[in-house]
Design goal:
Layout (H helix, E strand, L loop, with lengths): L5 H11 L4 H18 L10 E6 L2 E6 L2 H5 L29 E6 L8 E7 L4 H21 L3 E7 L8 H5 L7 E6 L2 H6 L36 H7 L4 H15 L5 H4 L2 H13 L4 H14 L5 H7 L5 H11 L7 E4 L2 E2 L7 H20 L4 H9 L1 E2 L7 E2 L15 E5 L7 H9 L4 H8 L15 E7 L4 H10 L6 E7 L5 H17 L3 H12 L9 H16 L22 E4 L2 E4 H5 L3 H18 L10 H10 L4 E2 L19 H4 L4 E3 L7 E9 L14 H22 L7 E9 L18 H12 L8 H11 L8 H6 L6 H5 L3 H22 L7 E5 L2 E6 L2 E2 L2 E2 L2 H12 L4 E2 L1 H6 L5 H11 L3 H22 L5 H12 L7 H8 L5 E4 L10 E6 L4 H17 L2 E6 L11 E5 L34 E7 L4 E7 L8 E2 L9 E15 L9 E6 L5 E2 L9 E3 L5 E6 L2 E9 L4 E5 L4 E3 L9 E7 L16 E2 L19 E5 ...
Parallel strand pairs: 4-5, 10-16, 12-13, 18-19, 26-27, 32-40, 34-41, 42-43, 42-45, 43-44, 47-51, 52-53
Antiparallel strand pairs: 1-2, 1-4, 3-5, 6-28, 6-29, 7-8, 7-26, 9-24, 11-13, 12-14, 14-15, 17-19, 18-20, 20-21, 22-23, 25-27, 29-31, 30-32, 32-36, 33-35, 33-37, 37-39, 38-40, 45-50, 46-53, 47-50, 48-49
């Protein structure tokens, strides 16, 4: 708290960014729901309170100081709720907002005491009584050993809500861009009579004295005009005239010869500033200044201030041309994707590192050295998810447990293919990539082992043997090996397996023929009596067929241990398929096909593999991708997803039985913590009740024995210091008994006592003792002496223990339980007769002695160690160079102060691993597939521990780099490297982030400047970041007196005649932000020619959540409908305003998104397949982080199986109503037209909003149907939002606002107009609720002259949508015959040369398919058909492909549907439904049913001017609306 801790400074920075505001808001919403459910009206509406439940019954509720103090005393009284309580039953669920003060799980039959207290942490007088009561409850429960959960939650302070909190928390961590509009846009804006924003200063006014305006024209050639005015006031007028001349010069296009080297001059300017008195920070400021204000005239300023530097600029450009690409940002080796470069995202990502460093510093380690280790830790590229048990391509060596069954490179069936391939000139893999999917299908005719398939099957089960036949049909590009095993006939399988290698070693075809004939000879039951004779018969026949001498059949060895995989199972390039998933129809060939397609895609994209790679190289790539592979498998150890780490403090572990393993020394430390579940004493049969635990001990004993032998023989693996600790979960007494009437010792208590005696804490553990205990336990029988038989293996004094008074024994067990409770709680829950294992804090389990047909053995202990040690996060950078040996991380931690204590080292390793895992999970974000690929590529390009950006910085010359060195007296937690174009967008946005990380967190920052030759203006916008105030003196502890002021963003733009500006926010990806106030300004059209101030205020309304929904068999759960329901809320209507955005349709890939204000929500399956329910998540979803969720929401749906929740708490989900008619329209005459017409439109800026309201009025004038207008909320101005309800009521229509966050996986548009076009067409399937079955899109700038009901009811002839074709030449028999029934040229003769679709690419594309080009200004969508055909997915897929070329889809909203007509046919609507002056003849206008004000390419005319000229009724509509608006008291410009 005093500022010395890096974590304290980090928390201060987070607090000043209001990062807790979302959590606070979520806590308040939960408090309001709970208060309403529990407290009576006698309690105040705000302030602190607490409640206690016993079981499911509300025992007490307190809302006064007196009642709070009595909570502890009244704990034993059940029933009779205290004053203030209304509910008798209340389900108190766990939430992510809980500060847990006490927690102990209840055993079966025990009642769980739960207590929650709410108070505002910002009000000590409110919080103190609640916290005192809660700590008293926690202490009492702990003393009595009672199961319970005591939590504190932030609530609402008593007293009136402050003005600041009602206005919302001021935020930072975002940026604002003012985009300069084109000259055409400036011309169009002239028709806005009211004016956009700036009436402005008088022409020629002198602004030289305006200190707040930084104008580059005042610094041309090093002359500061403002200084001259100050010293020569008499010359002010002349200097003002000079300034105006210079300003006019600024607005002229920069000559190409000047433009070319401007980036180099900007770089030289920044480096020169860094060499001055301001140091590197001044250089960073200079870089930022020119880029952020480039449109103000920095082209001329840079050119004028760089005389004499032309040679240096040319040299700089030459050097920069060979540098790595600009736009890269790397933090601690992570290549940060562009959408994660904001301050909030970076703080969220690296929070785990600061938290881990603090914990290790508290444990006594040196903070600076800890940060060196964390900073230089290279994240692993995933968990090993693949298994190799004999793939010959990997050169695994002789594996007698498997036999080669088929190899396409040597099988006789592929000889012709091999001969043909030898004659081909090109590479086989190159041909595969070129022709796969065109002429070739799977399997491709290639003699290459592209896929390795290992089979573990039962030869006695026909269904499994059919797998071989199915797999080897044709000539697949495979290598197949097999292991045979049978539970029903183990000797037969072993006999076959023992002789398969002899057969396959001699004849390539021998193995498959051997098995096929054996099955055939056996009829329906191959392994029936006489199987051995049939094996001999088939054996003799095959050798005779080959003309070879018949060798003797071998008898199987007694130790036929198998390959460690269940039966049946298969591996495909290491991917495991087992059980029903393997036996499903075509499952194995389909997976093989997918593996071939991966090779094709990799080659086509220029990635791995290479077309000249050998089969061995391809196999290595296949097995290494996705985290690597192992040679052993166990279902409890090799698990999907990220590893779970539970760092256990050494002090907690010291009381656990066990210690160092005898004979184990070395540099690496491995601590095994084994938690056994309760033993069952009522097991029937001959099996020992402790047999499972005996097997686990036997596995550890064998592993430790083998490692000890390796150490004795000086093998490297033996140099490992191991710790083994073990205890028992469950079966604890409720409290230490004080009488002799205590119950007899339970089996769990006996087992706990046994372990405590056999392995005293701190004493060494021997493999021999483990083996001895295991042997004795395996003989324990379920008798009356069950407890004695547990104790005897551990102690010679079992009788003495049993003779002790029951109370004494009960008290001792209570003490043991109490000492081990925290460890058991952290690693639990542990099911009975199973175990949970932690290896250096990494949790595995539950583990059963027999699992998936495999006995837990020493090799599985090996596997657990390998997963943690060999696949752990490695060191890179300076730490890797310093600690290059295998135990480098352990040695680095020792040097940091962990000394020789193995428990402390294990704790440090776990903290480090957990921090890295959490950081990696956070930075992966939602659905960043491309980013993951880039990150993987970045890691493979590391040379000498350096990443590309770091290498670029270190190799850059001194005049192309900036270095912000860290303060050597403080820890350096982050090393940041960036490659920046001095006149690129990164130079606008990155400097503020880099300065913050350096000044606040002491990050080292290295910037390589990479200027590029320019041929066009590089930047067309101003930019400013929202900065927070510096840290107050006293760091974290001083925040209590900090006023919380965030100044907001301020622009001071010098006057420019030809600039029109549009405001655009750049926020964290999870934010849904809307402008709530802008005065009278049109934020889409701000003039820069005057000096009037514009003030805008935005509000963060919701947080977006992205995720993936899958079925139980991991297929995308497309078309399902998901919804958020606030925790504690009653049922809500899906169409209510409060529920807007909380429901979502899952698209084809499984992707979905939801949005809601900060809070806790349950996820509900609103609509799915028959019998489906939500399987995951089972607990509340928290929107509690201002930066958004760090990981995508993982959703699984499937058939109900009656299973219990997998999480600790089940959230009962309130229903979300699906009522037909929820989206009815308004207005019209329902007696004449009862059906609602849904109209969709998009508008941005006051001008288009004015056009929009006229459009909807024209629709209302011509239809008597109810209307609901759907608008994209993203682009609406604050004034129009306020006006909309009044307009809707007066005109007569209902309105709904929709939005959709641009998905991270979809290539984003950067120009606002193109973003608007994209929203018109790309998200039609997800914008509207399922109750809306059809929608009619009408552009905002249209006038409707007919009843749109005609369009609404038109038959689309099975097409998903209908568009109007562009006016063209028609014939009497054409689809456009309604225009008069005779041939007619409807085209505008003045614009024939601009009709792009009648020339070039579009002409060829459309004529080849006999299609016509349609306009997107009006279209009808059948949403039922659109969703059923997944048309939205098709449009997005094609969009993603086409936009790889940034020049494609020039008119995105209409080019895209016209391009995909062969996939999604367009129904051509009647021609009269859209007339546009640009393309249609004047003669055809009289028949038009709608008129679109599309921009005429030969007329420089504004929208409003053209509307008045083209459609006379437009003025009438406009005047009526203006009168209504004035009556309502609104002042709307534009």
């Amino acid at each position: 708290c005093d500022g010395r801790s890096s974590f304290g400074r980090f928390l201060s920075l987070r607090a000043r960014h209001a990062l807790a505001s979302a959590r606070v808001e979520a806590a308040r919403s939960l408090e309001r729901a709970d208060r309403g459910a529990v407290l009576a009206t006698g309690c105040p509406p705000q302030g602190s309170w607490a409640a206690v439940t016993i079981g499911t019954e509300l025992a007490q509720a307190a809302c006064t100081a007196a009642s709070l103090s009595g909570l502890v005393e009244n704990l034993s009284r059940k029933g009779g709720a205290a004053a203030g309580a209304t509910a008798r039953s209340w389900a108190l669920s766990a939430s992510p907002l809980d500060h847990v003060l006490y927690e102990k799980e209840a055993a079966e039959g025990e009642e769980l005491v739960k207590a929650v207290g709410y108070a505002s942490l910002g009000s000590p007088q409110d919080a103190s009584p609640v916290l005192a009561a809660l700590f008293g409850l926690a202490d009492k429960l702990r003393e009595e050993g009672r199961p319970g959960r005591v939590v504190f939650r932030h609530g609402v302070a008593s007293g009136p809500t402050s003005e600041a909190s009602s206005a919302g928390a001021p935020l930072a961590g975002f940026g604002v861009e003012l985009l300069t509009r084109s000259a055409d846009e400036v011309t169009k804006s002239a028709d806005n009579e009211v004016g956009a924003v700036a009436a402005g200063a008088a022409e020629g006014a002198c602004v030289l004295s305006n200190a707040s305006s930084v104008d580059p024209v005042q610094h041309f050639n090093g002359v500061d005009l403002a200084v001259l005015v100050k010293h020569h006031p008499d010359a002010a007028q002349a200097l003002c005239e000079l300034e105006n001349d210079l300003r006019a010069e600024v607005e002229k296009p920069t000559p190409p010869w000047v433009l070319k080297r401007l980036g180099a001059h900007a770089a030289l300017r920044a480096v020169k500033a860094a060499a001055g008195p301001g140091g590197p920070l001044a250089g960073l400021a200079a870089l930022e200044e020119a880029a952020q204000d480039y449109p103000a005239g920095w082209a001329q300023a840079l050119a004028a201030g760089s005389f004499g530097e032309e040679a240096a600029a040319r040299e700089v450009l030459d050097v920069a041309s060979i540098m790595t690409d600009s736009g890269q940002l790397e933090v601690n080796g992570w290549r940060v994707p562009e959408h994660r470069r904001g301050t909030l995202s970076l703080l969220q990502t690296f929070a785990p590192l600061f938290r881990a460093a603090e914990a290790l510093a508290v444990a006594g380690l040196d903070e600076s050295k800890v940060f060196d280790i964390l900073r230089d830790t290279q994240a692993r590229q995933g968990m090993p998810s693949k298994i190799d048990f004999g793939d010959p391509r990997l050169g695994s060596g002789d594996n007698s447990a498997v036999a080669l069954l088929y190899d396409t490179r040597s099988d006789p069936k592929t000889e012709r293919i091999r001969q043909k391939d030898a004659q081909e000139q090109s590479s086989a893999l190159l041909r595969l990539a070129q022709y796969y999917g065109r002429y070739w299908r799977y399997p491709p005719p290639l003699p290459r082992a592209l896929v390795g398939v290992g089979l573990v099957i039962d030869p006695c089960v026909p269904e499994q043997m059919n797998l071989v036949k199915e797999l080897l049909a044709g000539t697949p590009p495979l290598v197949v090996w097999i292991h045979l095993s049978s539970e029903s006939h183990p000797k037969v399988a072993a006999y076959l397996q023992a002789n398969m290698p002899t057969m396959t070693g001699k004849f390539p075809w021998g193995g498959s023929d051997f098995l096929e004939r054996f099955v055939y000879e056996g009829g329906g039951d191959a392994c029936k009596q006489g199987a051995k004779k049939r094996i001999k018969k088939v054996w003799s026949a095959l050798w005779s067929k080959a003309g070879e001498a018949e060798p003797e059949l071998k008898e199987p060895e007694e130790d036929n241990s198998g390959v460690g995989l269940p039966v049946p199972s298969a591996t495909v390039n290491g991917q495991l398929l087992t059980g029903s998933a393997l036996l499903a129809t075509d499952a194995l060939p389909r997976l093989c096909q997918q593996e071939v397609e991966k090779i094709v895609i990799g080659i086509q994209r220029g990635r791995q593999p290479d077309t000249e790679d050998s089969d061995a190289a391809i196999a290595k790539w296949q097995y290494s991708s996705g985290g690597g592979y192992t040679s052993t498998w166990h279902p409890a150890l090799v698990q999907a997803g990220a590893a779970t780490y539970v760092p256990l403090k050494p002090d907690l572990l010291r009381s656990i039985p066990g210690g160092k393993v005898e004979g184990h020394v070395g540099g690496t430390v491995v601590a095994h913590i084994l938690i056994l579940g309760e033993p069952h004493s009522d097991v029937n049969g001959t099996k020992s009740p402790l047999a499972d635990f005996a097997q686990l001990f036997r596995a550890f004993a064998k592993k430790f024995e083998m490692s000890q032998k390796k150490l004795a023989s000086w093998e490297t693996e033996g140099f490992t210091e191991r710790v083994f600790k073990v205890t028992v979960a469950g079966g604890c007494p409720e409290a230490a008994s004080a009488t002799d009437s205590a119950p007899a010792l339970t089996p769990a208590a006996a087992l706990r006592r046994c372990l405590a005696v056999a392995f005293p804490p701190g004493m060494s553990v021997s493999a021999a003792l483990l083996g001895s205990v295991a042997g004795a336990w395996s003989k324990v029988t379920n008798t009356v002496d069950f407890v004695r038989s547990i104790l005897e293996p551990c102690s010679k004094h079992a009788q003495e223990l049993l003779d002790r008074p029951p109370a004494h024994m009960d008290s001792e067990d209570f003490a043991l339980c109490r000492a081990q409770q925290d460890v058991v709680q952290a690693l639990g829950p542990v099911p009975a007769n199973s175990a949970v294992l932690a290896v250096n804090g990494r949790r595995f389990g539950p583990i059963h002695a027999m699992q998936s047909g495999m006995l837990f053995a020493a090799e599985h202990v090996d596997l657990a160690e390998d997963l943690e040690m060999k696949f752990m996060h490695g060191l890179s950078g300076p730490s890797a160079q310093k600690y290059s040996n295998s135990g480098g991380t352990t040695q680095a931690l020792r040097d940091a102060g962990a000394s020789a204590d193995p428990l402390l080292l294990s704790y440090a390793l776990a903290l480090r691993a957990r921090a890295i895992e959490q950081a990696v999970a956070s930075r992966s974000g939602a659905a960043d597939g491309e980013d993951e690929e880039e990150e993987a590529e970045t890691s493979t390009r590391r040379t000498g521990g350096h990443t590309p950006a770091q290498t670029a910085f270190e190799e850059a010359p001194a005049n192309l780099r900036l270095h912000l060195a860290p303060d050597a007296s403080r820890p350096c937690p982050l090393r940041v490297f960036a490659v920046v174009n001095p006149l690129g967008k990164d130079a606008q946005r990155l400097p503020s982030v880099l300065r913050l990380l350096h000044e606040e967190l002491n990050a080292e920052v290295g910037i390589a400047l990479r200027p590029q030759p320019l041929v066009s203006p590089p930047l067309l916008s101003y930019y400013r970041p929202a900065r927070v105030a510096p840290a107050p003196a006293g760091a974290l502890s001083a925040l209590g007196s900090w006023n919380g002021h965030i100044p907001g963003i301020q622009f001071s733009i010098p006057p420019r005649q030809g600039q029109l500006l549009s405001m655009q926010l750049h926020t964290p990806a999870a934010w849904m932000v809307s402008a709530v106030d802008s005065g009278d300004a049109d934020l889409d059209s701000v003039s820069a020619k005057g000096s009037k101030s514009v003030r805008a205020r935005y509000m963060l309304e919701s947080l977006f959540v992205e995720g993936w929904a899958m079925t139980a068999d991991r297929r995308p759960a497309n078309s399902r409908h998901l919804a958020f329901v606030p925790l504690g809320a009653a049922a809500i209507s899906a169409s209510s305003e409060s529920a807007s955005g909380r429901d979502s349709v899952v698209v084809k890939s499984g992707y979905f998104q939801l949005r809601a204000p900060p809070g806790l929500y349950s996820l509900s399956l609103l609509r799915g397949e028959d019998g489906e329910r939500l399987l995951r998540p089972r607990s509340a979803v928290g929107l509690v982080d201002l930066a958004g969720r760090s990981t995508p929401l993982d959703v699984q749906v499937g058939a109900s199986d009656g299973s219990k929740a997998i999480s600790e708490e089940v959230i009962e989900m309130p229903a979300v109503e699906e009522q037909q008619g929820n989206y009815d329209g308004a207005g019209g005459d329902s007696s004449k037209c009862p059906e609602t017409i849904h109209i969709f439109s998009v508008a941005s800026g006051h001008r288009y909003e004015r056009l929009l309201r006229i459009m909807i009025l024209s629709v209302r004038e011509h239809t008597e149907c109810p209307i609901r207008l759907w608008l994209v909320d993203n682009f609406l101005s604050p004034s129009f939002r306020k006006l909309l309800p009044s307009i809707a009521e007066r005109v007569g229509f209902a309105v709904s606002r929709v939005t959709y966050k641009w998905p991270a996986w979809l290539r984003e548009q950067t120009q606002k107009q193109r973003v608007i076009w994209a929203y018109k067409i790309l998200f039609l399937d997800v914008f509207f609720p399922k109750q809306v079955e059809r929608v009619l899109f009408i552009d905002a700038d249209q006038i409707v002259r007919a009843n749109v009901r005609e369009l609404w009811t038109i038959d689309l002839h099975k097409a998903v949508y209908g568009f109007v074709p562009f006016c063209s030449t028609t014939s009497a028999s054409s689809m456009f015959g309604s225009w008069g029934g005779k041939a007619e040229d409807l085209r505008n003769p003045d614009t024939l040369g601009f009709r792009f679709w009648e020339q070039g690419f579009w002409k060829r594309h459309l004529e080849s398919q006999s299609k016509v080009y349609h306009i997107s200004a009006l279209f009808v969508v059948d949403l039922v058909a659109f969703r059923a055909r997944a048309a939205g997915d098709t449009l997005r897929d094609v969009y993603q492909q086409l936009t790889e070329d940034p020049n494609s889809l020039a008119n995105l909203d209409q080019d895209l549907p016209n391009y995909v007509q062969h996939q999604l046919p367009i129904f051509s609507l009647p021609q009269e439904w859209l007339w546009c002056e640009s393309w249609c003849s004047e003669e055809s206008k009289a028949r038009a049913k709608t008129i679109d004000m599309c921009q005429n390419p030969i007329k420089k005319e504004g929208k409003l001017q053209s509307a008045r000229r083209i459609a006379p009724e437009w003025n009438t509509y406009d005047q009526r609306l203006e009168a209504w608006i004035n009556e309502a008291g609104f002042n709307i410009t534009g």
